[in-house]
């Protein structure tokens, strides 16, 4: 019998994100006539309500945008800096050791990851406001309806939210998120059960304080947060509890509009955010892989996985050595992404050389992403985060502040040492794939250091193996962010055995889907196809 014909109208616009309530808010804005920026922001504000340990008004992030009116791409950098009162020696006497997975530093009393001193200056809202001013269509105030409704009426704890609540960070030397939930009275009231344990799947969270904060920002704009009453309340809470952020720090926040990296791969161009965002890692991995015929090796064969692993390790080592805030560090971007350097790296891999990457740990997975395309061809990809949640909810405001000071080395004289205004490297890498002058795909992912690992493999699946975007996202992935090569559960056992025989230290993770949560949209031939990573809770919504 013939295949049944498609009965769903072909979408002219689409949005995808890891949270169903957020996707719904963004799709509603698209249906009401909003464009991709409007929908993305509505989705992002809702994410801050329903994924409060992952992102929110107290966080940081990056947007990559394709503007069909000009045919150009731009990156809006909303990565947060150290407060002006920070200095390199402030915690040097508290240093104990690095976290065992390489992400962060163990300090006596953990002031760098929990509490008021752990907070970098929140910057994402300024980036969102600038994106709306440059590209938005609907009124700013209309973008908050979904978020305010979720905060006011309540939302249900989902499996992934609960997994974040109860994740074990003590094993690595960090403070468990469950302990941070009750750090302030507001946090305990919102996210803990009466017995003091984190709320579980199916429990509801009602947050009228956040609804009021969002309503203020909807009415008065981002200035309410950076120079108005919200800023004064944040600064007063900081001053009362030994925090570093002042009203002057908040007022000084500016979003940077920067040129993206443009990197050729398989006849397309990858548009990626530059340092201190994580596009350089993805770019270097793909530049190296361009020297190999991966399909001839077989998908996820031992030969292919070994090449992937070595490319990831080389890029990871270069990231550790060279990449930071370009205002403070000279980064050899042109050399790292040059054809000659990629060819040299590939030659080393072909000669059987194994790169040593003794300690490059995975960042915490407290991040989220959105991809959106509208009927006019505006493409937006955003990744935003709290880094690590600080546990700090300023009284009566309803949102948690980031704990991103744990990203900085407390030992003076190092590339990532603390300094006023310094931004730390972030793996966030929302990207767009161009075919000539036309965008053909956009991707983003939460997942810390796994972001670049996962995006690189999904791009290989799309552009080398010709997979559809959902298939490309769902295909089994591997990770090489240390001396151990991690394999997701569905990588064949024969591949594992062959890699072990080659001398690799291999670890199989016990989860079906692993290594960041890639979400994206493909748009070849004008047909929109969305992909949501099954390890998260979201979906892709098309709007006709």
TrEMBL record:
SUPFAM superfamilies: N-terminal nucleophile aminohydrolases (Ntn hydrolases). It comes from the Bacteria. Pfam families: G_glu_transpept. GO terms for molecular function: hydrolase activity; transferase activity. InterPro entries: GGT_bact (IPR051792), GGT_lsub (IPR043138), GGT_ssub_C (IPR043137), Ntn_hydrolases_N (IPR029055). Keywords: Hydrolase, Transferase, Zymogen. Belongs to the gamma-glutamyltransferase family. This is Gamma-glutamyltransferase.
């Amino acid at each position: 019998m013939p295949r049944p014909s498609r009965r769903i109208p072909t979408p002219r616009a689409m949005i995808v994100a890891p949270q169903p309530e957020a996707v719904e808010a963004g799709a509603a804005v698209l249906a009401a006539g909003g464009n991709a920026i409007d929908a993305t922001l509505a989705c992002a504000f809702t994410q801050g309500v329903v994924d409060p340990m992952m992102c929110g008004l107290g966080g940081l992030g990056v947007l990559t945008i394709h503007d069909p009116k000009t045919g150009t791409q731009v990156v809006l950098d909303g990565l947060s800096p150290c407060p002006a009162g920070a200095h390199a020696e402030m915690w040097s006497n508290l240093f104990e050791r690095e976290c065992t997975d390489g992400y962060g530093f163990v300090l006596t009393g953990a002031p760098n990851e929990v509490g008021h001193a752990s907070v970098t200056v929140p910057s994402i809202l300024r980036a969102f406001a600038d994106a709306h001013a440059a590209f938005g269509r609907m009124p700013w105030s209309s973008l908050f309806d979904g978020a305010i409704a979720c905060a006011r009426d309540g939302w249900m704890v989902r499996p992934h939210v609960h997994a974040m609540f109860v994740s074990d960070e003590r094993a690595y030397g960090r403070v468990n998120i469950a302990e941070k939930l009750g750090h302030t009275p507001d946090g305990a009231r919102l996210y803990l059960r009466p017995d003091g344990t984190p709320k579980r799947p199916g429990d509801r969270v009602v947050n009228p304080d956040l609804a009021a904060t969002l309503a203020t920002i909807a009415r008065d704009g981002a200035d309410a947060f950076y120079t108005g009453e919200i800023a004064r309340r944040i600064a007063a809470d900081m001053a009362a509890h030994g925090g570093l952020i002042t009203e002057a720090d908040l007022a000084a926040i500016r979003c940077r509009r920067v040129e993206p990296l443009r990197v050729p791969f398989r006849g397309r161009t990858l548009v990626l955010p530059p340092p201190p965002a994580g596009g350089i890692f993805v770019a270097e991995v793909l530049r190296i892989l361009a020297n190999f015929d991966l399909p001839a090796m077989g998908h996820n064969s031992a030969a292919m996985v070994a090449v992937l692993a070595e490319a990831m390790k080389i890029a990871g080592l270069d990231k550790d050595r060279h990449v930071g805030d370009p205002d403070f560090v000279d980064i050899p971007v042109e050399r790292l992404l040059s054809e000659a350097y990629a060819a040299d790296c590939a030659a080393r891999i072909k000669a059987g050389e194994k790169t040593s990457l003794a300690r490059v740990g995975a960042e915490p997975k407290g991040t989220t992403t959105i991809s959106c395309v509208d009927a006019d061809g505006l493409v937006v990809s955003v990744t935003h985060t709290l880094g690590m949640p600080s546990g700090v909810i300023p009284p009566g405001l309803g949102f948690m502040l980031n704990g991103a000071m744990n990203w900085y080395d407390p030992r003076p004289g190092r590339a990532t040492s603390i300094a006023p205004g310094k931004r730390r490297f972030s793996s966030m890498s929302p990207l767009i794939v161009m075919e000539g002058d036309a965008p053909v795909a956009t991707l983003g992912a939460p997942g810390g250091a796994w972001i670049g690992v996962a995006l690189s493999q999904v791009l290989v699946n799309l552009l080398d193996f010709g997979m559809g975007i959902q298939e490309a996202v769902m295909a089994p992935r591997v990770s090489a962010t240390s001396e151990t090569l991690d394999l997701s559960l569905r990588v064949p056992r024969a591949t594992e055995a062959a890699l072990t025989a080659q001398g690799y230290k291999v670890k199989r993770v016990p989860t079906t889907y692993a290594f960041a949560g890639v979400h994206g949209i493909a748009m070849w031939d004008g047909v929109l196809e969305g992909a949501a990573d099954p390890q998260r809770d979201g979906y892709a919504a098309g709007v006709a």
